[in-house]
Amino acid sequence: MLQASLYLYALICTIFVHPALGFPVFGTPAQAKAALIRVKLIPDVFPKFDPRLTLGITYHVNGTALKGNLGTNLTPADTANRPVWSIPDIDFKREFERKTFVVGMVDPDAPSPTNRSASQVRHFIGGGFKLEGTVLRNTTPALSDYLGPGPLPGSPPHRYATFLFLQPKDFPTTPFTTSILNFNLSSFAEQVKMGLPVAGNFIMVGPAPS
Ligand SMILES: *[C@@H]1O[C@H](CO)[C@@H](O)[C@H](O)[C@H]1NC(C)=O
Ligand SMILES: *[C@@H]1O[C@H](CO)[C@@H](O)[C@H](O)[C@H]1NC(C)=O
Ligand SMILES: *[C@@H]1O[C@H](CO)[C@@H](O)[C@H](O)[C@H]1NC(C)=O
After folding, report:
1. Domain boundaries, the chain
2. Which of 52, 67, 121, 138 has the greatest count of CB atoms below 10 A from its CB?
3. Contacts of 37 (CB under 8 A, 6+ apart)
4. 123 to each of 27, 43, 67, 206, how far by Cα in Å?
5. Which ligand is nearest to the CA of 75?
6. Distance between the two ends of the chain, CA-based, in angstroms?
7. How many A from CA of 40 to the centre of ligand 1?
8. Does domain 29-62+71-172+179-205 have CATH number 3.10.20.30?
9. CA 69 → CA 24, 85, 119, 152, 209, distances in Å?
10. pLDDT interval class at 3 (50, 70, 90)
11. pLDDT of residue 69
12. Tens digit of pLDDT for each residue in 27-37?
């Protein structure tokens, strides 16, 4: 009986979770919305969020793919290099296949979740992302190059939120010259008229062990 239930469990995991079978491993847009509201990224970063797509975050570390999904705990070493962003559920959303996207990543917990006086920190802003299969490849230089998470010693883990937008006409091409501190992603989104994100995801990163 036990053996039979274990077998059934393994079968269910294989069918629903195994990435090689092409099933989503990042959860649905509805799950992303619920999770971002639960950890208050909504409304801390955007007042509203009605995602239509799933945003995948995959870091490649020493030959291992680490998926960052709805609060995965990762280390500064894991996240030192820019991840690959993807839209794993694109098969279900053909209307988005030929679109151009903007990716924005911010830390709203700087210098710490209890003192957010330097928030948001701008960790990445870039446009010109186009789909190659399910992977988002950028075709233009970033406006704000990727900066890996580096919370100060003693701080609890920070929320690192990444949002995906449809790229508006006349999206800027000049890199930022302003400080990465005290950035405001929703006011930037308003300024460049890209509106609310179509997808979002987040990871948690604490300080590197000292
Ligand atoms: C990757 O490998 C190098 C060399 O072995 C090591 O120094 C580094 O800590 C590894 N990175 C992670 C995130 O494990
Ligand atoms: C909050 O952090 C800033 C540094 O960004 C510091 O100057 C300030 O004193 C801190 N405030 C409190 C209440 O700890
Ligand atoms: C960001 O800007 C919006 C206006 O676009 C404002 O409503 C919001 O309070 C700002 N957020 C922060 C954290 O300052």
Report:
1. 29-62+71-172+179-205
2. 121
3. 49
4. 24, 19, 18, 15
5. 1
6. 49
7. 33
8. no
9. 12, 11, 22, 23, 22
10. low
11. 96
12. 899 999 999 99
